[in-house]
Amino acid sequence: MDLKKLLVRSISGLLYVAIISVCCLSGTIGISVLATILACLATVEFAKMCRENESRNIPVVILDTVMCVLMANSVYVIPLIIWVACLIGRLVLELYMENPRPVKNLSHSLMAQIYIGVPLLLMTLIPVMAYMTLDDKWYANNSSWTMSFGPFLLVVFILIWINDTGAFLAGSLFGHHKLFERISPKKTWEGFFGGLIFNLIASALFCYFGGEQIPLFQGNLGFWLGLGTTVTIFGTWGDLVESLMKRSLDLKDSGNLIPGHGGILDRIDSLLLVAPAVFVYYLCFQLISVF
Fold it and tell me: Is 228 helix (H, G, I), strand (E, B) or coil?
């Protein structure tokens, strides 16, 4: 890779990280803005990947995008109600589209809701769950943090990035045994375990040195090591799922939105499986803690 491409890739990557960090640390409004931006960009990109005749489906793409944005913000009641109305409207709209393959068209729309909208909704719920864990006494003494529920969500993003970095380094240096050659020939078992080791180390550091900014289960090493493992496993699966879709559509990248990094789906593919997995992991850990 030449220096110019490396510089462009580095700058766009840093900008992407900065935007996510600022949104995560800006409270519920920032997280909602992040979910909205990701939903808009990812849904439009997903539609371009799947639909052959883009111009004919512009109304559908717009409606799908609106629905994904509403789904991503359905932690609030009003967006959920509007989403239900839009879903009915989407089904009715197909009656008037005169599309020769209505089932395929509807499948793309509903897949966007499941693949993009639902995970982003669960992403917005992750910091809410972290907020609900802490007792009222802690909040009374740390009122400035109550306006920003996002440090734990940012940690989830950081673990995804650390896993990707560790997997790349270990795979490049030691990779020989293919992880899933049919879908992603470059991924190796050495890379997978490298990412896992990096994540376990990072999780242990967050456990003991997260401080007051990351109070969730502070000092509970079991919770944090389980979190790091969950992010690694489901982050890898998320990457493979998107690779499967791109391979079936003969695409190298999902788009070209982020210079040097491909499309937005290429950047959040891990998140789309990690967010639901972390949500379920957290709930399971809470139930185990109760009993």
Answer: helix
| C-beta of residue 155 within 8 angstroms of C-beta of residue 127 | no
Look up residue 214 and give its DSSP letter. Answer: S
Q: What is the value of pTM for the model shown?
A: 0.89
Phi and psi of 79, rounded to 5°? -60, -35
Q: What 8-state DSSP symbol labels residue 57? A: G
Burial 15-33 (b: 16+ CB within 10 A, else e): ebeeebeebbbbbbebbbe
CA atoms of 69 and 86, how far apart (whole Å): 11
**Reduced to 3 DSSP states, what percent helix, strand and coil does the chain have, rounded to the nearest 5?**
80, 5, 20
The amino acid occupying position 73 is N
What three-state secondary structure class fits 187? strand
**How confident is the model over 50-95, as pLDDT tens digits?**
865 554 578 888 899 999 999 999 888 899 999 999 999 999 988 8
Question: Which residues of the chain, if any, have pLDDT below 50?
Answer: 1, 55, 135-148
| φ, ψ of residue 185 in degrees (nearest 5) | -60, -25
Maximum alpha-carbon separation in the chain? 62
